[in-house]
Amino acid sequence: MIPNLTQTLAIVVLGTSLFFLIMFLPALLELRKPKDSGPRMIMEKVPEFHAQPSLFMSMPNIEEEIRFEHSLIQRLTKIVEVLPSLEV
Prior knowledge:
The protein is mainly α. It has a domain at 8-32. 57% of the residues lie in helices and 0% in strands.
């Protein structure tokens, strides 16, 4: 059996509690007195949908912007075709 079981148990309990205290102390201190007041919404900068409908119309089309070269697509398909044969 383990000699001095109470002493070993006391060390384990104190060590575990000290570990959790050290790990969570910064989070607890930050919750009690936060350094940042949080996100703020500036009302002058928020666009309204009914006031500026052209804002959403002028957004670029992502599908037209993304263009892959044919050689790049061929290389990627070769890599994907090899992947199933790597299973052991």
